[in-house]
Structure formats: C-alpha cells, structure tokens
Specification:
With 433 residues, the chain is of the alpha+beta class. It contains eleven helices and 18 strands. Strand 15 and strand 16 form a beta hairpin.
Length: 433
C-alpha cells in the first residue's frame, strides 16, 4: 500500500503544477481584460461626444472634379465642443493659438490640425416675403473645396444652429475626399470654423473678405486689435460665438464689442448679421478717418456698425419699417470716402446688381427660391463664366421660420442638390429624393 501511495503522489505532482499555471494564466488574462475594459469605458466616457460626432460624419454628395465640385459632408455635433472653455480662457489671438486649443481639448493632442488661407468672394442680402418672412441670403465664393454641413446643439443656454464649414480651412485637401478615421477626427474642429449659419433664435450671420490694406501685403492686412482689458477672438470663432449666444442683432453686436478681433488666414473680413425682427447690421473694423490707401495697420482699427435702419438705406414704399441690406467685398461704411472711386471696390458690380434686383421689388422676394435666384445671378459661373473659381454653396435662411434652403456648387437646377433644413424638426432633406 505504501508503494502505491508513493506512485500516486509522484503522478499527481505535475498535474497540480499544471493546474496552478493555468490558474495563474487565467488570473493574468482576467486582469488584462479588466484593465482593457476599464480603459475602454474610460475612453468611451471621455470621448463619448467626439465618438458620437465622428460616427455621424457622412458624405451627402460626391465630388465632380470636372465641374470644380468638392464633396459635401454632413456632421451632427454632439456636446458643447469646449467652446465655453475657449471663451472662458480668453479666446485666441491667432490661428496658432486656436489650433493649440482645439488640439489640446478635442483631439487630446493625438492629432494635429492646420488652418489654411483663403480668398473668399461672397455676396449677401436680406429681403422679405409677401407673408412677412425675413430672409438672409448668402453665396460663398471660393474655389473647389470640400464642405461640411455642421449641425450643433450644445445646450447649457447656447443656441442650436446650422452652419457651413469649408474643410480646406481645417487642413482637408480640396483635391481628394475626406477618408479615414484620422481625417474624420480632424473634422471635429469644424464647429470652430463656420463661414455662415443660422441659430434657433432666428439670428443669421455670414463672413466676407473685405480686402483692406492698400498696397501692403498684396492689398490685404488682417485686423489685429490690441485694446487693453479685452479678450481675443478670431474671425470664425466670432461667428460661432454669434450663432451660439446671440438672441438678436443687438446682442450679437454687444458680444462682439467685448473682444479684440484678430482676423484669420492672413486676410481681412467683415460680417453681416440679421434677425427675425428684420433688423440687420454690417460689422467692419476701420481706422478713424482712414481710407483704403492708409488702412495698413490692423491694430489701429475699431469696430464700426452699419445698421439697415441707417439713413443710407431706403424706406420701403409700402410703409413697412423693414429695410433690406446687402454686402459683397468692399467696405460699406462711408465707402465713397474710403475709396478713391468705384473701380477700387472689390465686388462692386455684384453689389450694384443685388441692389437693382431688390430695389425693383422694394426689397420683396416671393419666397426662398426667388432669393436663391438672385444668388444664382451673382454666382461665379453665372457672373463671370470664364473667370476662376466657383460659388461653393448658396444658402437662404428664413429667419422667421428658422429654416434653410441650401445648394452646393451652383447646382440650382438639380433637385437632388437642393437641401432644406428645419431647426425645429432637425431634419435635413434633399428635395429631389
């Protein structure tokens, strides 16, 4: 019996040792799985809004290089994209500072972005329909590029909005589609770079090149205010601030007054903003008693606001208190003093055409499609068929109903390219599908 027990003990030893190793391996594997799970949960919690936003990114229309058409994308932004923090930390006085904030807060330092330069043409005007709806119409003239319809609903007292972003502005090549996860993550910067839009209070805003600066730097000097006691803001983040926080034109102007403007992309801009009451304003930064030939110091400029209620705009013949307003690419405030002659006013021919069309109808257009027709008439391909560039998108914002009619790449006659959006329903719909 003793000999048998000895044999059994010798046989069981390796078995026990094997079971021990299996147990150790299982414990290690379980620990690894637990760590991975914790990291996954942490990642999902920290990046939950970003993950949801990237998952919403999709292509609406394919590119058509033969017709200078980039792709059209859609993105539904989840969360507040740290814009409250951006303003609370003093904003940014340069594109470099803006890039650092976006990289640190949105891409967590994992992905770098860049902000490109641009040469924007553009036209805008306000109008009224026979039913009294206030409209804000806008062309974005540039060159072939990819754009993204960007929907934001940040909450926490900020407005829901619809805006359009030129993805070239955040480093996406206009010559190819936005492919791959890394590029899609880079597009998380889009809310910081809108070029126009409308919010759910019926406030719309657009940005336009103003070509200020005489003969310095090829005719353009960026606004670069340096007033003490003010925070800093760049061109597109100022527009985002208006879309997120402005309840009307007056509150938009008051917001802008609090900041030093630092124009982006080494160029100069002015803006037009309008609201559902029919009030609108053009925001420009000018030197005191300066002219186009002397406006060469971006730090010497001050905010000047030209309202549609000013005497330079016509009172409508029907007795309405609404006055239409329009803008292209030259300084509007005292422009006959600022420029030596009309030849020095960029976009003056488009400016005059828009005026003639609105004047003929006393500022009234039948509907959004009629406003879009005026945009078509001053679109780049129509206005100068043999010229360079294109109208990247056209938008008509109904400030009364908080809706949008939006057309990419001058495809005005293609129903599948005519999109409508309602801030009330949140639905973006192609009219041809």
């Amino acid at each position: 019996m003793g000999e048998e027990n000895s044999k059994i003990s010798v046989t069981e030893a390796p078995v026990k040792k094997t079971k021990l190793w299996i147990k150790i391996v299982c414990i290690v594997l379980a620990s690894i799985v637990a760590i991975v799970a914790v990291l996954g949960i942490t990642f999902a919690c920290v990046w939950s809004n970003e993950i949801s936003t990237v998952r919403s990114f999709k292509q609406l229309r394919e590119r058509n290089d033969d017709n200078l058409e980039g792709s059209v994308y859609y993105m539904n932004v989840k969360g507040g994209f740290y814009f409250d923090d951006f303003l609370a930390k003093g904003g940014a006085s340069s594109d470099k500072q803006l890039i650092k904030f976006i990289t640190d807060n949105i891409t967590r330092g994992l992905i770098s972005i860049s902000i490109g330069e641009t040469d924007i043409g553009c036209s805008s005007f306000t109008a009224v329909t026979p039913d009294g709806d206030r409209l804000f119409a806008r062309n974005y003239d540039f060159a072939k590029t990819n754009v993204c319809v960007t929907l934001c609903d940040p909450g926490n007292g900020r407005h829901k909005s619809f805006s359009t972003v030129d993805l070239n502005y955040i480093g996406m090549s206009p010559e190819k589609d936005v492919n791959g996860l890394m590029n899609e993550i880079t597009c998380l910067a889009a809310p910081f770079t809108p070029l126009d839009g409308i919010n759910d209070a019926g406030v719309a805003c657009g940005i336009y090149m103003s070509y200020q600066g005489g003969d310095v730097n090829d005719g353009t000097v960026a606004t670069n205010q340096q007033a003490e006691g003010k925070d800093d803001i760049t061109s597109t983040t100022m527009l985002r601030m208006i879309l997120d926080y402005a309840d009307d034109v007056d509150s938009a102007v008051e917001l802008v007054k609090k900041y030093n403007l630092h124009d982006s992309a080494n160029t100069s801009f002015h803006y037009m903003v309008a609201d559902a009451t029919g009030k609108s304003a053009i925001l420009e930064w000018l030197p005191v008693d300066g002219t186009d030939a002397t406006d060469n110091d971006g730090a010497a400029r001050e905010l000047v606001v030209t309202y549609n209620t000013d005497e330079m705009y016509e009172t409508l013949r029907d007795g309405s208190d609404f006055k239409y307003q329009w803008i292209t690419n030259f300084i509007v405030k005292d422009h006959d003093k600022y420029y030596a002659d009309n030849d020095g006013k960029p976009g003056y021919d488009r400016y005059e055409h828009i005026y003639e069309r609105l004047h003929a109808t006393d500022g009234t257009v039948e509907n959004e499609a009629a406003a879009m027709q005026i945009l078509k008439e001053v679109g780049r391909r129509t206005w100068k068929p043999n010229g360079k560039g294109c109208t990247v998108h056209s938008a008509v914002f109904n400030l009364t109903k908080k809706t949008v009619m939006w057309v990419p790449n001058e495809n005005y006659d293609d129903p599948t390219a005519v999109y409508t959006y309602s801030l009330e329903t949140g639905k973006l719909v192609s009219q041809g599908r």
